[in-house]
Amino acid sequence: MDWSQSLRLIAPEETLSIAGLVLLLVAAWGGDKASRLISILAVAALVAAMALVAPALCGGAMGPDTSAFFGQIHADAFSSYARILIYGAAAVSLVVAPAYFERFNSMRGEYPVLVIFAALGMGMMVSAGDLLTLYVGLEMNSLASYVLAAVLRNDGRSAEAGLKYFVLGALASGILLFGMSLTYGFTGTTSFAGIDAALSGGLSNGALFGIVFMLAGLAFKISAVPFHMWTPDVYEGAPTPVTTFFATAPKVAAMGLMMRVLFDAFGSQVAAWQQIVVFIALASIVVGALGAIGQTNIKRLMAYSSINNVGFILIGLAAATPAGGAGMLVYLAIYVMTSLAGFAAILSLKDADGNYVEEIAKLGGLSRTKPGLALALAIVMFSLAGIPPLFGFWGKFVVFQAAVQADMIALAAIGIAASVIGAFYYLKVVKVMYFDEATDVVQGESDVWHKLILVVTCLFISPFGYLLSGWLGKHAETAMTALLATL
Q1: What is the rounded average pLDDT of the residues 34-51?
Q2: Start and end of every NADH:quinone oxidoreductase/Mrp antiporter transmembrane domain (predicted)?
Q3: C-alpha distances out from residue 106 to 101, 236, 314, 350, Å
């Protein structure tokens, strides 16, 4: 093995590791008063990491030359695609944080450091070529995330969210580890390539149980049914910038990891996991749609929306084809931008005293008091519902198309029917803003960074986003080809 080549391939991880350690020292010496400087430097480190991974995606890097440390890491176009989304979402989560935390006098230097280490772990997850790398990256992300959920120390809801996330996350990690142990025991290797080779001759009952337990652990990480129970409480209780982070970057990481595991490690046993993914997809779509109907808090509504959208994304995985995988990647990019727009809008909902407004009923008549903000939030809701001509429709279209091409017409039909149910609660928010009596609760001015992020992301998910559909689809297909090239 060429050590210099391996070290060059993990340059983004090295950058984030060094930046995290240095900023940790700055936080220790400078205290909370240096938190803004630390946030700026953390964003710079994440942007630098994005710049380092971009050439691999643009150049379509794949094959043995992208393998580092005896196949432990794959720095190919697939991992680069996912890492760009992860690092970008993490950077936005840092940009929107200061205005929120300073309202509570709780902006701390540890927050940017925790986000960097979580992003580092997520980058390892989508690059993993071995069960050990998978678990190290997963736990690095999880441990940082537990603290992030409870970072607002003077808020009981934040502490509760952190505790729930920790307890249930630890349970999911244990289930995943048990599945990994079974897989290792019945294949004799932790390498994805070795597992695939060992299972190509047939699937034993023990290895099948390993697949089931691993899928259960990964389903928790993407908040898929029936392992979704933590999502509404954590989304509502965690500080909104942290919820912004949870709704975007970890979703990409867990989805990318699930694709890596199922296509690379269990690619020869599609029939064993395909029916499980179909069930998880349909259950998530239905539970997400029905669970959101009675919600009165907009952050809880976004939580059920994420469960619903995870189901739609998994339809692409259930197709188990290159087109399905590429559709998933396109959907993920659109979903990340839509979620960032949604939470930027939520962070802009403030009353005259600067308190954040989360109750949907208090948004009555927002179109007359804050027409620009109401329009942005309406664009987000319509895009999440997949209503054309907004770009969110394209994400649903490509995964349904992949399912139809894979002769899974019933799955696509059920998904389309369920998306109509999901449109109800999105339209309810629009109805409150445009047709209800004005409550005049939302009167505060939003931060300039929140406005900028909202404008950029809304332009992306607007009909103008279709101008990027060819470019986005091309990179998604390149990433999927790179993933399959590791087999």
Answers
A1: 91
A2: 128-422
A3: 5, 18, 38, 18
CA distances from residue 38 to 26, 29, 47, 110 in whole angstroms, order as listed: 7, 12, 14, 9
Residue 87 has pLDDT above 90, yes or no: yes
The type of residue at 465 is: G
Question: CA-CA distances (angstroms) from residue 410 to 142, 400, 403?
Answer: 36, 10, 9
In 320-408, where does DSSP find H-type helix? 322-347, 366-369, 371-385, 392-405
Closest CA to 277 of 292, 259, 291: 259
Quote the CA–CA distance of 443 and 358 in Å, as a whole number: 14
Please tell me the distance from the alpha carbon of residue 115 to that of residue 120, in angstroms, as a whole number: 9
Where are the alpha helices (H) located in 150-297, listed in sequence order?
156-187, 192-199, 205-221, 231-237, 240-246, 249-260, 270-293
SS3 assignment, position 203: coil
**Residue 1: pLDDT band with limits 50, 70, 90:** low
Percent of the chain's residues with pLDDT above 70: 99
Q: What is the pLDDT of residues 257-300, one digit of tens each?
A: 999 999 888 877 888 888 889 999 999 998 888 888 888 888 88
Rounded distance, CA 79 to CA 264, Å? Answer: 13
With CA atoms as reference, report the closest residue to 121 among 71, 78, 87, 157: 87
Alpha carbon of residue 367 to chain centroid: 30
Q: Residues 170-211: pLDDT tens digits? A: 888 889 999 999 999 988 888 888 888 888 877 788 888 988
CA–CA separation, 322 and 484 (whole Å):
8
Dist CA 173 CA 365 (whole Å): 45
* Contacting residues for 27 by C-beta, under 8 A, at least 6 apart: 34, 35, 38, 108, 109, 110, 113
Do residues 204 and 276 touch, judged by C-beta distance below 8 A? no
Q: Which two tokens stand for residue 174?
A: 């244990």
3-class secondary-structure state, position 356: strand
